[in-house]
Amino acid sequence: MRHRFLTADVFTEQVFGGNPLAVLPDARGLDPARMQEVAREFNLSETVFVLPPDDPAHTRRLRIFTPAHELPFAGHPTVGSALVLAAIGAIELEGETTWITFEEGAGPVSVSIRAAGGRPVFAELAAPKPPEARPAPEAGPLAAMLGLAPSDLRTDAGLPVIASTGLPFLIVELTDAAALARARLDHRLWRRLLADAEACAVYLVTRDAAGLDADFRARMFAPAAGVEEDPATGSAAAAFGGWLGLHEVPADGTARYLIAQGQEMGRPSRLEVTVETRAGEVVAVRVGGSAVLVSEGTIEAPAAD
Question: What's residue 1's pLDDT?
Answer without folding.
Answer: 85
